[in-house]
Description:
The chain is of the alpha+beta class. The mean pLDDT is 94. Strand 4, helix 4 (101-109) and strand 5 (116-120) form a beta-alpha-beta unit. The protein has a 5-stranded mixed β-sheet. Helix content is 36%, strand content 32%. It has a single domain (8-120), classed as Alpha-Beta Plaits. The two termini are 18 Å apart.
Amino acid sequence: xxxxFPALTVLIDFDLLAPIEDVQLxxxxxxxxxxxxxxxxxxxxxxxxxxxxxxxxGVVDYTSAQAWIDxxxxxxxxxxxxQWRAAARLEGLTFLGDMAPEIxxxxxxxxxxxxxxxxxxxxxxxxxx
Length: 129
C-alpha cells in the first residue's frame, strides 16, 4: 500500500429501521460528532442511504487499526451513536486493509457477531485531492 491511502477502510452495511428523515438526522448528528471529537485517526467518514432498498452503507477511513479501536471505545457511549443504532441495524463489515488481531479481539470481547469480511490488500489505484 502507498502512503497516499488510508491504512484501513471499512465498508459498513446497515438495514434501516426508521423513517428516512430520522435516519438522515441520526447519521448527520453522528457525523458531526465524529468530525469534532472522533479523533485524528479517522480520515474519512461517509455514509450513503438507499431509501428504496431501506439500506445504508458507511465508508470510513482510519490511519491504523488502533484508530478504529480508539474511535469505537469513545463513540459507543455517545447519544448520537444510540440515535443511529435506533435508526439502523448493523448488517455487515468489510475491512479493506489491515484487520489486525486487536480489532478481532475487541469485537469478540463485546460479542459482535456481525458478518465480517477481511483480508483485502491494496493492489492499485489513486486518490486525487
